Amino acid sequence: MVNQRVTEIERDSSLDKVEQILQGAMHEFLLHGYAGTSMDRIAVCAGVSKATVYSHFQDKQGLFKALIEKLAQQRFHSIFGTERLEGDPKRVLRRLLTKALNQMLKDEEFHAFKRVIIGESGRFPELARLCTISLVKPTIETLGQYLAFHPELKIPDPEATARIIVGSLVHFVMTQEMMGAKEMIPMESDRLIDALIHLILKSAD
What we know:
The chain has 205 residues and is mainly alpha-helical.
């Protein structure tokens, strides 16, 4: 019983260390970019030894990958949750798109992280691929499958439609929040969602 308790404490301590390292890594990547961040910087920022960082992550790319996967899982779960996508498509789609767009608009940390990924993608294309595999691909697949399971919508290409939806949301956030377009070409998010749902449901008329 004592040995089991010791093991649980060690496991909890290890998880705490991983979280410290990930938080330190996020701070450094946002501040210095991927190329300008070192494992030494991350260790100092996280308040752990360099040996501790390497005991949990093989190298900087492995750490960056873990950070992308963590963020992707959190964002995906906050939108889709664990519930099955069931019910009237108009209500389900409005709920999903509203939740996704509101989250994307308010997520300043993720905006900054995306800037790092985009900015470094030329020199480190594997970073962009990791983001696509961890977040973009599962989102398109899940949404595409939902659309495919509703033949009454009469959508000839559910995957392409899912890409259009996701692409529209991403473009809206990038232009409005990251490129300052909300002051030059302002638009309420509800208008975008209404237009997307109208286009999706129109084919079913």
